[in-house]
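Section 3.1 - Work completed
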Amino acid sequence: MKEHAIPAGATHARKRVGRGEGNGRGKTCGRGENGAKSRSGYSLRPGFEGGQMPLFRKLPRRGFSNARFRKEYALVNVGELEKIQGDIVDLDSAKAAGIIRSNAISIKLLGNGEVKKSYKVKVCKCSSSAEEKIKAAGGSVETSS
């Protein structure tokens, strides 16, 4: 659509503020009299309460965060092992089968589900129930931390 073809009333004229008292938006340009809000470049930061002590500073800091040193594991149940082609279960074979995400760096094996064949498992961590089920099916578990 071209500019000359826009129907009348489809667009509003821009408010021209500060162009004299006659248009109703002169002098202070609709910003009121004084204060930070009337100044150009004013922006209010999140949590600002007008000089009153903000809520986030009143509340106590609690808890403990171990985020820097936390090791994250991709959790895999033994019932999902049947999706893996072959009998060797490690990080690469689990990624190839789509059990874990491609950016996972370590696996923890959990004991939910049934083990139908023997697997040779190489994971970072393994729960005791998962280890029992794999060994009962004739497999082996090797953990590395």
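Second construct:
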Amino acid sequence: MFKSKKLSKLKNVKHGFFNKNGGVSKGIYKSLNCGIGSKDNKKNVKKNLKIVKNKICIKSKEIFLVKQIHSNKFIFINEKSKITNRSKEVDAIITNKKNFPIAILTADCVPILIYDNKKNMIAAIHAGWKGAYKGIIKNVINFMFKQGCKSRNTTVAIGPSISKNSYEVKKDFKKKFVKKDKKNIIFFKDSNKKIYFDLPNYVKSQVKLHKIKNIDFLNKDTFIKKNNFFSARQSIKFKHNDYGRNISIIVID
């Protein structure tokens, strides 16, 4: 488990970015696969989710998850909400409920955890290139600000994801981003007739647009095997028919 130094300093919140280690799954899902939508044995995934919950020392019965669809949609959950686990197709969760752990799953995409320590509100965002391009980060932060959160009280932890040196993309991909904003050219690197995209720094730039200064950047590449994360791109490389998912979790204590 990896932690943000900045989030760890704050009271009333617990969090963690998990890699493959410490679970019960076998084969290509070894070992802490938390992807309930994967082809892994469901009993093992549920055991893994329980292991994560216990590591964070959470009183709640279960970790709240959604069905992620690479969108710019989010869900807000308060005390009055009656939304069942994994019933919504969105890519971010916002809540002000205590002892209500929220989490997102990734396998190269960027996990983002947010906490406003005055408003006591948290968010978990799944930001792949599609969601980031469509504005998932902007939508979540703008909503939190409308609820009374302030940039000076907000801490954002950007978790492990695929890095620029591992993320090869096509010409059309680059064109799409540069067409949207010419400044996006800085997130691309051309090397040996190949194009690489810096997804985590693109995500960081989206956060910075909201004048948030408390940003923690956990610079770990999920594609590099020794870092021991589940990686969709690694699974393609090894011709696996599926892959496990890393979990990133946050809860108001």
